[in-house]
């Protein structure tokens, strides 16, 4: 269940919410930093769904579900890169809209909060949960803090905890330094080849 609360009662925007953690867990299913690809096959995707919690242990995953998960992940990564300053790609926005139409949620309103519940179970419900988490972040005003690292070999999804939301790398000491070194080498090479 994804619960949507007002920004005034949701804690510090510098601390990632469970919604941010779910989106990041999903986009970081890629083989990153020596980890294994969690969307390598239907069984690895099913295991991720059960371990992470968007689906119960009885979930069945088809090859079509796996392909859809990879497509949703790539669309989200494109948007998260735009949060870190890359150009927004219309095709990513279109894919997210299409996923929202295919995997709807229903609002459940209570006395003090509201929740977005998937209308389906299984992998389709998990996709709806991820999209509901993104919607919750947007309503809280923290969606732009969920980013993907601009260092191409990295691409790790991260939560920008900086006050001015200016972080473009998951870690300035490693990825930021790598990018600065590459830029320096490119300038030096250009200067030496007039």
Automatic annotation (TrEMBL):
Source organism phylogeny: Bacteria, Bacillati, Actinomycetota, Actinomycetes, Streptosporangiales
InterPro entries documented for this protein: ABATE (IPR010852), ABATE_dom_sf (IPR023286), Znf_CGNR (IPR021005)
Record-annotated Zinc finger CGNR domain positions: 145-187
Pfam families in UniProt: ABATE (PF07336), zf-CGNR (PF11706)
The protein's name: CGNR zinc finger domain-containing protein
């Amino acid at each position: 269940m994804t619960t949507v609360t007002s920004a005034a009662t949701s804690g510090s925007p510098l601390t990632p919410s469970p919604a941010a953690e779910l989106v990041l867990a999903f986009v970081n299913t890629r083989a990153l930093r020596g980890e294994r690809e969690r969307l390598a096959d239907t069984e690895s995707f099913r295991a991720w769904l059960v371990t992470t919690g968007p689906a119960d242990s009885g979930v069945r995953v088809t090859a079509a579900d796996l392909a859809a998960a990879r497509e949703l992940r790539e669309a989200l990564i494109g948007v998260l890169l735009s949060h870190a300053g890359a150009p927004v790609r219309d095709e990513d926005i279109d894919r997210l809209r299409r996923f929202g139409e295919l995997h709807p949620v229903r609002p459940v309103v209570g006395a003090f909060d509201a929740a977005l519940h998937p209308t389906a179970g299984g992998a389709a419900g998990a996709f709806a949960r991820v999209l509901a988490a993104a919607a919750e972040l947007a309503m809280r005003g923290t969606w732009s803090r969920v980013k993907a690292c601009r260092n191409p070999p990295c691409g790790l999804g991260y939560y920008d905890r900086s006050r001015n939301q200016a972080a473009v790398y998951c870690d300035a000491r490693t990825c930021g330094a790598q990018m600065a070194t590459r830029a320096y080498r490119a300038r030096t090479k250009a200067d030496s080849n007039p």
